[in-house]
Queue: 4 jobs
Job 1
Amino acid sequence: MKPIEILEDFFFIERGYLNANHFVYRSDKPVLIDTAYITDFAETRACIESLGVKLSDIDSIINTHSHSDHIGGNKFIQDESGCGIVIHRIGKYFIDTHDDWATWWRYYGHQAEFFNVTQALEDGDTIVIGPHEFRVIYTPGHASDGIVLYNQNEKILISSDTLWENDMPGMTLRVEGSTALFRFEESLEKIKALDVRMIYPGHGRPFKTAHEAIARSQKKIQNYLTNRELIGLDLLKRITIYTLIIRFCFLLYSIHWRNKYRRNKLSSLCYEKRRIPSRLIGGLNNV
């Protein structure tokens, strides 16, 4: 799947299971939204540069939350470009205080590096990216610092990990606390009130069926609240699959991928690699 130009000079890039999707605004002052996982930074660079954007020219990065699969490239890009980095004020606090527990990095043993947050976002703020305006909507639940971005003119929602098409993200109550499910319910209600034409999630393909996706997540939350053991079982499945991919299969495929696409394939590499995790996990979204 090639980058999708969802607004003028504003592109959506779909990544694989291990990396969050991200966005590139192409201009003389480029803007990124999320930067994937740190170990795949070479691929992230290639994806961005395939659009004619140099990392050294990046003006700012906007993060939808501070989990490792969304902020992995931040430090590298900031070191190279001197760009600003924007995140919700709770995420800024986590990063400023080097809290690798609240960000989930230490809990899951993820690789990540701290960076300099230059601006804190609040619920209701407006982010201007070139000619495009997005409203910041605070959506805790999956992550304490989670936000989505809503473009009212085009009815576009950058939903990050608050809303996926066929599933909801993992709930780590050991970190987020016992009220996380209730906060997630409230966040979904915020999204439900929006007039949305197209959703661009943090993982997976774009989709149009906002209310159906919300209903699926709400049903799963109710199942979790009714039987709390399901939370742990579901999380265990995800952790097992993630570990298998990142420890074994992903390494083998990376060697193959580098040999196959080393030359003259930079524009396609970020779309080919994403297919491997989906085949390995076959139907993860339905478990």
Job 2
Amino acid sequence: MGPFFKFQTPIELKAKRNLGEFGDKMPLYEDGIPFYNVIRDYVGGFVDLHYPDDNAVLADVHLRAFYTDLNDHLVNHNLPFLTSKAALSDVLATYIYYVTGYHTHAGTAHTEAATQGVAPSSFYADPSKDQHGAPPDAAAWSFFTYVGTASLTLPITGDTKSTEWKSGFKDKESYFWLDSLPADAPPFEEQEDVEAIGYPEAFEGHADEQALNKAFAQNLINLQGKIIERNIKRHNGDSCYTPAQSRVYNCFDINFVESGVAI
């Protein structure tokens, strides 16, 4: 099927596209690569807890069975061999990236992809014509995402208020429509920060895993702050961005990212 379907990490894919400095400022990469790195650090830490060295990875018969099943489902059957802790971490982190933040970018499994500020499909000189949503029709897309996925996802930080838009929007007022928040949400100036809760019940009895999961949520919150700073610059047409890059982009902002059941 050709290189289009080749398995590769987001970092490898960006390098292959050879976009230079322009690519560094493309929101998909400027926000997406740091998002992937947070995931990669989390997965690497989790792998460290369970595999003391590369030989332990090679000796895991269950992992070999997992690899065979996963590779069978790839178009080119070219999943990297899980011969080391690093290779295992790269594969797991890549899949998590594609079913969380990148899934929001693709606009196929996330309700917020059909609302303003995520991945606009059209750009108009007359703002009254702008749907502020994903292609091709925001209302229709919203209906299908509600039916197909809305009840099957979880907030990636564990804080349910974040994906209800009841926290995390305090510093976003300058680049969001004033009527974009839900009717029952606090106004921008009264919104609290997203809380790093994680999913301690999923790791009950394993304090190291719980701590790692909570740190992962906090690292995503820290990244959100940087994304907000960049969005303010994009919205204001900062000179570090070209006109093509000067559009608010929220796909890797934790108010929009959910943990897909595909994990």
Job 3
Amino acid sequence: MVQLKRIALLAAAAFVLVGVLVAGSSRNRTGPGTGLSPQATVSAVYFHRAQRCATCRALEAMCRDAVKASFPGEVERGELVFQSIDIDAPGNGHYLRDYGLVSQSLVLVRADEPTAFRTLDRIWELMGDAAAFRDYVRSETARFLQHERAT
């Protein structure tokens, strides 16, 4: 009888834990505590790990500079926000699944619908060519913004 109660208690605890994990992995997260800015129309998010080398920091700076220099009006009006999110921080692991991240990445995300996104997967490839890098980030971001304005 004691063994049966113990099994029932463990099963109930497992059920609660699974429910918490499933509820916590929602893809439609914005606002305080979720990392994504709820005020902007689009967030350009550089996702990184807690341990970062000089190259990873340089890549983040290049992404930030390309976004802010290419879209000063949108940034000033708050329509486009550059953010940096540590995917190793507690509660941020869902971004790996949400956006299919495998390394440091720049992702354009629609604030009111985080499932509408575009990963700029060529940033590592173009890192050695500053002009091509800037052009790539500018053109992909412009296309994403144009599409978001049309919807």
Job 4
Amino acid sequence: MTSKRDGSDVLNVQPSETKPKAKPKTKPKAKPKAKPKAKRKTKRTVATRGKANSAIRDAGGTRIGRPRREFEPETALAIAATIAADGLDWATASHLHGVHEQVTGRWMVENEGFALAIKKARAEDVRALLIRLRALPAGQWTKAAWELERKYPERFGQNQTLQLTTTTKLEVSGAVCAQISEAWGKFKRASAVEV
């Protein structure tokens, strides 16, 4: 009798009861090599503007960037004359003469004579407004007074202050004083009715 050699007779196990064969182990596929990461720059390789300016100055050169507009006496006098004649503020007068207000501000800081000329021009504008105010007839003074109040509120404004002495000092304008006194009156009338 011939028999099949399936291996079941050796183990005396029925073919349905045999364990499935394990797959043969194969080598895992190699992962593709990753590209090396680029190094991060931690420090700036380009010199900063401040360091560049100091290095150029140390070497005896001029500073980098747009050149500063130097003080121009003719333009400064024209700005002061415009302030005195037209009553403009110094920023508007400087724009009228083609100078940026920051440049004019720097000129006033650096050149004391120019700053005094601007103050003198503003004083002449106040003087001209006061002369015009005095020359107006009795009922037509409001426009000149309004202009003085708006141009120079620290000197001609109607900012009335009330000082209350408590643990802290408090400055209150005239309109707020009126509101406070009105509210206080209402409070007193209401408390008198309740009693």
